[in-house]
Amino acid sequence: MAALKVPTLGVTGGIGSGKSTVCRLFEALGARVFYADHEAKRLMTEDPALRQAILDAFGPESYQPNGQLNRAYLAERVFDDPNALRRLNALVHPHVLHAFQEARKQATRAQVPLLILEAALLFESGADRLVDHVLVVDAPEAERIRRVVARDGIPPEKVRARMQHQLPPEILRARADFVLENTGSLEQLRQQVEALYRHLTMT
Length: 203
Ligand code: ADP
Hints:
ATP binding, binds adenosine-5'-diphosphate, five-stranded parallel sheet, Depp_CoAkinase, alpha/beta, ATP-binding, kinase
């Protein structure tokens, strides 16, 4: 008998919206989460074809002598250069999407109740087309800035600068199947996540 299809949910939102927190709450309920940004970093170091493509495009300084990714160098190359950032993303994203397809096969074999794809650039990478539904986590900008300042210990201007690189919340919300308003307590967030988990895993 063929294994039942595992439902998939893409989770995104601006910096500080609470998407990582939401994903941890889903994990606690039994979902499996594929963290796209984490996977991208891993593949940039470990995937030989991707390493070569990055070396060809950005030069030998892209990797340190010990083989680790030279994050500072690459960050500087793409900072304030949208074309370079686009080129880097165009190299990395297909590898991440492929890895997600593999994760989906594994999740099907393991019959996990829900597979989540967490990605800051869910729409920009085309990953939204690989999932059944998209959840956007959102909160007012001032609250998001407060949360990131507290989390990362960086000044508000730096948080605002990072927000400039992301799609505005109105666009995210318009493309979402579900919007989670993360404006209350963590306990309220947990309850909202639980309700959505039940809805998505109902058989
Ligand atoms: P993102 O992954 O979207 O950048 P996080 O999930 O890391 O956001 O949340 C940002 C910070 O705000 C974290 O330190 C998190 O613990 C905190 N946080 C998220 N939601 C709430 C909430 N409802 N109440 C209080 N703190 C929250």
